[in-house]
Amino acid sequence: MRAEIVIIGAGVVGLSTAYHLARAGLRSILVLERGTVGSGSTGRSLGGFRVDFSTEVNIRFSLESMKALEGFAEEFGVDPDLRRIGYLMLTTGEELAVRLRENASRLARFGVEVEVLRPAEIGARWPYLSTGDLVSGTFCARDGTVGPSELTRGYAAGARRHGVTIREGAEVVGIEVSGGRVTAVRTRTERVSTPRVLCAAGAWSAWIGRMAGVEIPVMPVRRQVFVTGPCPAIRGLVPQVVEVGKGWVFRREGAGFLIYGPQDPAPDGVATLDWGSVGWAVAAAAHRVPALADAEVLGGWAGLYDISPDSHAILGLVPGLEGFYVATGFSGHGIMHSPAAGKVMAEVILTGQATTIDIAPLTIERFGRGALLEEPMTAHHQAKG
Ligand SMILES: Cc1cc2nc3c(=O)[nH]c(=O)nc-3n(C[C@H](O)[C@H](O)[C@H](O)COP(=O)(O)OP(=O)(O)OC[C@H]3O[C@@H](n4cnc5c(N)ncnc54)[C@H](O)[C@@H]3O)c2cc1C
Predict the structure, then answer these.
(1) Helix, strand, or coil here: 159?
(2) Contact between residue 337 and residue 375 where contact means Cβ atoms under 8 Å apart
(3) What is the CA radius of gyration of the chain?
(4) Which contacts qualify for 357-361: CB closer than 8 Å, 24 or more apart?
(5) What pLDDT is attached to residue 129?
(6) How far is it, in rounded angstroms, from Cα 246 to Cα 91?
(7) What is the set of domains in the chain, with CATH numbers?
(8) Rounded to a whole number, what is the largest CA-CA distance in the chain?
(9) 96, 342, 346, 355: which has the fewest Cβ within 10 Å?
């Protein structure tokens, strides 16, 4: 079999790229997925969506993606379940409080309003939060959540409508390279000759890179989410609450709430729920939301964050290996940035250059040059902290 491009991974990033490539006219696109569509990190995500980042490139990815999400229902016939519940970022540290204020000023230059709040203001607006140890917070009302499965369904159906083949249960086990370029991809049952390969394998990208002789610095980190039952003491609108520096997240979900458990490295790429960490999760929740101390934990799940060394995505062509592209390492914000990521990756693959957003800061060469970015508002920083 032959394909113009093989995309490895049918998560939201691989599917968004497949859709944008096909819409731009590329034919013979094959997506290989070892599980089922969305069965990787995409299907485990909370779908948080925010513009409140520290780097210009992340802000541009959020703004461009938001534009796409606003037109998503019309383009795909699928409601993306966009809920503007707002993002409330909290910190107990002086240094991070300064960064939150700087972010608010930077975002104002992009026309995005972010309120900088003192602990007393936070307590008055969201009385179920304990604010005694807080230094500061910010609230961005236009942020919120989007449905990961709705997005994935929209992109998969849109890609298929434009002729993309998505093969499930097709694990890639080898990538053939000859004369400095990729020539074929092998699954357990077939060999596909192709001049282009896109690694969109999320947290498992390092394994794919090794098949092609390329080091892709993406580390799988386990995140656990627990679901509580109702808690009548928590009334009114609950935003997505994030404790920057701790990586703790809380929001309403149905009649109950979602709370984060601890995060830890998962070097074997497997994430299973550890019921032993329920105590940690409830204690962390009760510290910030005392009413949750008595909440019943009904269930939970675990998934992998796809962490790069500087918590930013890794995008573009891999130098020295013609035809090998990466779109990975989104570091816990791959759902929200997938619309823009698919668009810019299609531009790079088809024309050699991204025109919608300058992705020069996100190429894989940055690690060799030591040109790492800094983003304290993401999971890696929190994992270290
Ligand atoms: C608990 C949790 C909460 C999160 N919350 C948010 C959030 O609020 N907002 C946000 O934007 N992001 C969030 N994320 C992160 C987000 O889920 C990821 O960044 C995003 O899903 C990455 O998409 P992807 O397509 O790159 O990777 P994936 O969805 O992981 O897709 C990669 C695919 O590659 C496949 N694959 C791997 N190896 C092979 C192989 N050898 N052959 C064939 N296929 C292979 C996998 O099966 C997988 O389906 C969260 C993640 C977790 C775990």
Answers:
(1) helix
(2) no
(3) 21
(4) 357/57, 357/60, 357/61, 357/64, 358/57, 359/57, 359/315, 359/316, 361/55, 361/57, 361/312
(5) 97
(6) 9
(7) 5-67+148-218+309-371 (3.50.50.60), 84-142+219-307 (3.30.9.10)
(8) 66
(9) 355
CA nearest ligand 1 atom 37, residue? 201
CA of 61 to the centre of ligand 1 (A): 17
Q: In what helix (H) or strand (E) does residue 119 lie, and over which residues does it extend?
A: helix 119-125
Distance 181 CA to ligand 1 centre (A): 27
pLDDT digits (tens, 9 = 90+) for 208-249: 999 999 999 999 999 999 999 999 999 988 999 999 988 889
Give ligand 1 pocket residues (Cβ under 6 A): 8-14, 32-35, 39-42, 44-48, 171-172, 200-204, 208, 223, 225, 303-306, 328, 330, 332-336
Q: Ligand 1 pocket: which of 17, 19, 204 to mutate (most atoms <8 Å of CB)? A: 204
Q: Rounded to whole angstroms, how far apart are CA atoms 312 and 58?
A: 8
User: Using H for helix, E for strand and C for coil, what is the string for 195-261?
Assistant: CCEEECCHHHHHHHHHHCCCCCCCEEEEEEEEEECCCCCCCCCCCEEEECCCCEEEEEECCEEEEEE
Q: Record the tokens describing residue 107, joined without a space.
A: 């975002």
Residues in the chain: 385
Q: Are strands 172-178 and 181-187 parallel, antiparallel or unpaired?
A: antiparallel
Dihedral (C-alpha) 94, 47, 57, 370: value to the nearest 10 degrees? 70
User: Which of 50, 185, 335, 382 most suits a substitution to test ligand 1, by most atoms within 8 Å of the C-beta?
Assistant: 335
- Using 50, 70 and 90 to split pLDDT, how confident is the model at 377? confident
Mutational pocket test of ligand 1: of 45, 186, 189, the residue with most ligand atoms within 8 Å of the beta carbon: 45
Task: Give the position, in ligand 1's atom list, of the atom nearest the Cα of 48.
Answer: 8
Asked whether the whole model's pTM tops 0.90, one would answer yes
What is the three-state SS of 245-291?
A: CCCEEEEEECCEEEEEEEEEECCCCCCCCCHHHHHHHHHHHHHHCHH
The residue type of 4 is E
Closest-CA residue to 145 (of 238, 82, 89): 82
Q: Is the pLDDT of residue 385 over 60?
A: no
Residue 376 confidence class, pLDDT cut points 50, 70, 90 = confident
